[in-house]
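Hi R.,

Here's the chain you asked about this morning:
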Amino acid sequence: MDDRPVIWDRANRKHIEKDHPERGITVAEVEEAMTDATRQEVPDPERDGYWLARGRTAAGRRLFVAWVEYRGGRYPVHAHVIGRRGR
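And here is the predicted structure, written out as tokens:
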């Protein structure tokens, strides 16, 4: 698992929290899922340079997060809640 820091800037904060308010996901929850000791991380088989992670927040919410390597860390580019079917 990759334990480099999670990198945030105005663009990805806006995308996670403001562009998709219907998802109700916060930056803090993405950080929690990306640092969850039991998370699963794999390279995205469809997009070079992208990684996919599944992890839990402190409240137990399951999140899927896509991220790319950026400035020595992990830059989240997408997040959604994992439903009962695992998607």
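One quick note: Strands lie at 40-43, 50-56, 62-70, 73-81.

Cheers,
M.
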